[in-house]
DNA sequence: AAAATACCGACTAGAGAGGTCGGACTTGGC
DNA sequence: GCCAAGTCCGACCTCTCTAGTCGGTATTTT
């Protein structure tokens, strides 16, 4: 269903939060602060933040009054960066990452087209920066939903609920 | 990791296969034929095809020498149609489908922006038809991969392997 | 030294995906 | 009319992966 993991969600929330704090006096925020503000388990939030440090998106300060802050200006960090830091590289199909992950490699007839689609999705996520996210969520949090709902028409009748899961 | 399920993969493979058969003398193909050609478990392939029938993308003929064929011309069936028929509606985040799936609904600061991203992805998948897929996979199966590999650079250094899983 | 924080790995529970089985219904041939 | 082949359908099992937890260590401030 093309869903991203909850850890990636948390990562985006944290990055968004830190992006807004950026530039203020106390730019460094502790894992506990963020976790409590958004009702996220502290340990899990910490784990996510640590991974973001390891991938270079955040820098951390240890010890009392330590915390996390962005390593780069938010305009230079894309949504794709954050998601891939947590969930690993995008793999639309099983054979997206490596060459021979699936048995059907030689017989598969959709590999090429799906690669193109994957690239378009990556490009989409790559063009949205954390700064844009922070700005959008700050200014117009509710208007966005209403704007996109009326675009949800599909080509065929797949919209009334395949009823699975 | 934003991956689509294997059933959706199989569905695309089958649709692609049927799209090429379209117009030939024996347009109807049995589940076993497709399954054996692509090394997919027969029962699973049948299950996927049946679901495609239920959602109206395929029509089936019962009995001996029965099988499946497209219900519409392949140009009018999008990749999004096929995926949603199998995996249900796209849900980039937990709160993509309904309003209050997640606890953090009121506090979430990334909901609006993620909705926009979701819509872009859906639009991307909606613009690619099965006919295009069939044409691409037929003409240039290998050239596509090489073209996209050199675009895989990230903004930060997240490319050397977050090493998770 | 004590408190607060980041850091790290291992572990568990639950959900969901992938895959399998058995049976009912339909069609074609004898 | 009967049997074989094939589709159709729902229930079931199994295994992976995700979300979340726990314990311990290192580092800095007070």
Topology:
Two copies of one chain form a homodimer.
Chain A: H1 6-21, H2 31-37, H3 42-54, E1 58-61, E2 67-70, H4 79-87, H5 111-127, H6 130-139, H7 143-149
Antiparallel strand pairs in A: 1-2
Helix pairs in contact in A: 1-3, 1-4, 1-6, 2-3
Chain A binds a DNA duplex (30 and 30 nucleotides) through residues 5-7, 30-32, 41, 43-44, 46-47, 49-50, 53, 60-68, 165.
Structure description:
The structure is a homodimer of 165-residue chains. A two-stranded antiparallel sheet of chain A has the order 1-2. The radius of gyration of chain A is 19 Å and the shape is elongated. The N and C termini of chain A lie close together (11 Å). The model of chain A is unreliable at 141-165 (pLDDT under 50). Chain A has helices at residues 6-21, 31-37, 42-54, 79-87, 111-127, 130-139, 143-149; strands spanning 58-61, 67-70. With 165 residues, chain A is mainly alpha-helical. Chain A is built from 7 helices and 2 strands. Chain A is 48% helix and 5% strand. In chain A, helix 1 crosses helix 4. At the A-B interface, helix 1, helix 4, helix 5, helix 6 and helix 7 of A face helix 1, helix 4, helix 5, helix 6 and helix 7 of B.
Distance between the termini of chain A: 11 Å
Q: What's the tally of helices of chain A?
A: 7
The percent of residues in helical segments of chain A reads 40-55%
What best-fitting shape of chain A do the alpha-carbon axes yield? Answer: elongated
**What is the chain-wise order of helices and strands of chain A?**
HHHEEHHHH
Percent of residues in beta strands of chain A:
under 5%
For the residues shown, what is the average pLDDT of chain A?
79
- Strand order in the largest sheet of chain A: 1-2
Radius of gyration of chain A, Cα only, in angstroms?
19 Å
